[in-house]
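Technical annex B. To support the medicinal chemistry partners, we prepared a structural model of the target in complex with flavin-adenine dinucleotide, based solely on the information shown next.
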Amino acid sequence: MRIDTLLNANKRMLSFEVFPPKPNTDVEPIRQAIDSIADMKPSFMSVTYGAGGGNSKNTVEIAKGIARKGVTPLAHLTCIGATKDDIRKRLSELREAGIENVLALRGDRPKDMPSDIEGEYPYADALVRDIRDFGGFCIGAACYPEGHVECRDRAQDLSNLKRKVESGCDFLTTQMFFDNSVLYSFLYRLRDNGIQIPVVPGVMPVTNSRQIARSCELSGTSLPSRFRMIVDKFGDDPAAMKQAGIAYATEQIIDLFANGISAVHLYTMNKPDVAAAILSNLSEILK
Ligand code: FAD
């Protein structure tokens, strides 16, 4: 099923994100975790992709496994450092695997990549264009309610996003955010700038305080004081932090639904217990 068709149905839904095993790690526990998440029958499941493409086969294999479970897969695809030929090969693999949905990303510049090498895909808009020309895919892309870290000029970031959308995106998924008012004002700015495609807000249930501090720093995501207080209080107690993180994410999602958002993407990070707890908290709301 194409994800834009799902989103345009305007039904309340959750999607979950998983990541493939890193090279030289045990594949089996991850496969089991992903199967358990798929068994919860989210509306769709996205599978991340390593920047530089090192792990691309795993992304396709996991997406195929998700489809076998009867869940719509969304395969991420990054383009930094790739050639046009590489991308055509990746798209052919996806097409052969019967995958209809691709999240087109530039990817973060690997640390060892010289900054003057831009390659054939300096930004994701070129990838979106090539996927559109290749044909047959529903195309998603990333957006950043607090602006992307590399572009601190919000207006410029928005006009870069508009160019990407006009290259052929069918929907957008946001970076995580912890203050829903940031998301609402971002959505107003998108609509004001003529960006009308569906936007799926991305919510991260925080279960590890150290990890979140680091990823917020890297992604430029701010922590509202209400959330910071929770991390300060429970961050050293993993079980309490997990419970508080699930409760906070649940509240965020309920507020999003209450404000007319119909689809929310959960950064479930291969944690079936977290996905199950949130689904249980929302059981009546998602009926
Ligand atoms: P772009 O849209 O290309 O934007 C990158 C930066 O360049 C922005 O600052 C933008 O303003 C600027 N820019 C865009 N176009 C131009 C232009 N023409 N001229 C000048 N500046 C321009 N990373 C992975 O490696 N694997 C994943 O699976 C993955 N999944 C993700 C899923 C989501 C929902 C999100 C939000 C991010 C994900 N990322 C992933 C991270 C992403 O790859 C990084 O945030 C990356 O730095 C930017 O990717 P992008 O596709 O948003 O880039």
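Notes passed to the chemistry partners:
The radius of gyration is 18 Å.
The longest strand covers residues 72-78.
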